[in-house]
Amino acid sequence: MSGFSINRRWFGRALAGAGAAALSACDRLNQSKPVKRVVYSAEGLTRRVQRLILSPGQLAPEYQPSDISPLFRPNGSIGVDDDGYRALAAGGFEDFKLEVGGLVERPLSLSLADLRARQTRTQITRHDCVEGWSCIAKWKGALLGPLLQEAGLKPAAKFIVFYCADLIDPAVGAQYYESIGLSDAFHPQTLLAYEMNDQPLPTAHGAPLRLRVERQLGYKQAKYVMRIAAVESLAPIRGGKGGYWEDSTGYEWYAGI
Ligand SMILES: Nc1nc2c(c(=O)[nH]1)N[C@H]1C(S)=C(S)[C@@H](COP(=O)(O)O)O[C@H]1N2
Ligand SMILES: [Mo]
Question: Which residue's alpha carbon is nearest to atom 1 within ligand 1?
Fold first, then answer.
């Protein structure tokens, strides 16, 4: 699949073939209430991040509860084959801690209760997989930007990396990972979601925590997120292309839709 690149036209064709139902949901597209500005204090934000926050760019369309897909297709890993993860799941993820580190002033270690106590957002959005299907769901989670501000990004930080619990390729022992730039990280619809359709995030969809980065394709929506790191460069990480699929098949790092 090298040389494979995603563009709108290709994606449109793929959808036309495989996702007619999803497209009709798309056609019914009704913009719900406008996205409220995320509350930031000026403190601890670099100039670069301040600019991103002031002009967040395009918002992803949001949908109505009646648009929610009755069956949201799980894709990629649908669970985690790991004793540590199973123990966390057995305890209802009460002992789960999201680690936020790398190029930050104050590393964080946050339980689900801690995340619920931060700035949260609920949104109904469409997930577009590169394989040509789409589903709509309601997501609730902690906004990523304010968490990064709380941790205090160092000026050198340019990317946020998401490390997942699942071994996507047991043959080579590769865990899933993904990364985004700061404009997506501080976008007002970028969440670490712990609820899907008003229920705790199901196992198949990434329990206990997944990324929702709504202007990007499905493979950027990292599930089973355990650790986040702010970094200056993606080059030293794994295959150097910023994500499992980017490294292994040449999917584009910037999967904007
Ligand atoms: N950790 C992890 N995240 C992942 C994947 C995966 O295999 N492992 N698959 C990706 C792909 S290709 C898609 S389309 C979506 C699927 O999300 P869903 O299972 O909620 O439909 O998750 C993405 N995030
Ligand atoms: Mo996907």
Answer: 223
